[in-house]
Amino acid sequence: MDTKFFRKLGRSVSSLGLGTWRMGEDRSMDDASVAALKRGVELGATMIDTAEMYANGRAEELVGRAIKGFNRDELFIVTKVWPTNASYEGVLKAARRSMDRLGTFIDLYLLHWPSSFPICETMRAMEELVNRGMVKHIGLSNFNVESIEEARACLKKTDIAAVQNRFSPAYRKDYADVIPYAQREGMLYMAYTPIEKGALSGNRLLKRIGEKYGKTPIQVALNWLICIEPVVPIPKASRMEHVDENVGSMGWRLSSEDFTEILNRL
Ligand SMILES: NC(=O)c1ccc[n+]([C@@H]2O[C@H](COP(=O)([O-])OP(=O)(O)OC[C@H]3O[C@@H](n4cnc5c(N)ncnc54)[C@H](OP(=O)(O)O)[C@@H]3O)[C@@H](O)[C@H]2O)c1
Question: Is the Cβ–Cβ distance between 109 and 92 less than 8 Å?
Fold first, then answer.
């Protein structure tokens, strides 16, 4: 099993997670999406990322279906509250609805985007969810270091355990600040849109490097992300062959020379 330990979580999670954005939008794809998630979990990608916003809660329902029969302790279920629900009462109610759809507690609950509610009001509700045992850890999505610090200053008994932002080998906005910050603080950094919606599959540099390892460009892209200490990429795949390809990014590592070549030349 390829896992990473995070101080702020007090546990290990899989080095690759499974995204779910767009799942549940086209009902004819539901069974395929559930099967794809089950397959990913079976192959060791035991972190699943979803959100109340995805298909108006239907993605969470599909996650609930997919995780039935697995050992709950081995899973790490992440979901998010949409900014319009980020008032104190709004957060408490949104988390309850998400739990009902998932059929289980939430390992990590994220504020999906900065909202117009005072951040301390949202954080107070997030902390209450931890008190009530509905949520194990809390975090932020689409936040920079300064706004993460503002949110942390509101918290009394718990702390921000994770950040989820856009990051890929071709989109590296957080490389010099949010990622080293997460590393220093022992936080999990979840990288979304990690394969640029599949566009990295045609990249010539990734292809050339992958040939040395018997790996595809997508597997090299995901492994490049896994090589960065606090980063766990969360590619979304509804197609079985995509899941199989993506999980093949776990269990090995690029050499530091190849990592650096991608950093400098992609
Ligand atoms: N916090 C946020 O604001 C935020 C924003 C965006 C995304 N996210 C999360 O991050 C997850 C991933 O991001 P994303 O969905 O934007 O983009 P992504 O994971 O980079 O790309 C997903 C797309 O790539 C395709 N794909 C998957 N594996 C592939 C492979 N091996 N080869 C070729 N194509 C492949 C998928 O097709 P199939 O589905 O047909 O297999 C899908 O169309 C989301 O699902 C969501 O959970 C969070």
Answer: no
Kindly report, residue by residue over 205-258, the tens digit of the pLDDT. Answer: 999 999 999 999 999 999 999 999 999 999 999 999 999 999 999 999 999 999
**Cβ atoms of 154 and 182 closer than 8 Å:** no
pLDDT at residue 1 is higher than 90: no
Q: Domains in the chain, start-ordered, CATH in brackets?
A: 3-193 (3.20.20.100)
State whether the beta carbon of 202 lies less than 6 angstroms from ligand 1: no
CA distances from 237 to 20, 62, 118, 148, 194 (A): 8, 13, 35, 29, 12
State phi, psi for 153 to the nearest 5 degrees: -65, -20
**Residue 142 — left, alpha, or beta (φ > 0 → left; ψ -120 to 50 → alpha)?**
left
Q: Of all atoms in ligand 1, which is nearest to the CA of residue 168?
A: 20
d(CA 101, CA 2): 29
Cα 139 from chain centroid (whole Å)? 11
Nearest CA to ligand 1 atom 31: 242
Nearest Cα to Cα of residue 12 among 21, 22, 1: 1
* Nearest alpha carbon to residue 80 among 58, 112, 102: 112
What is the reported pTM? 0.98
Rounded to an integer, what distance in angstroms lies between the CA atom of residue 74 and that of residue 86?
29
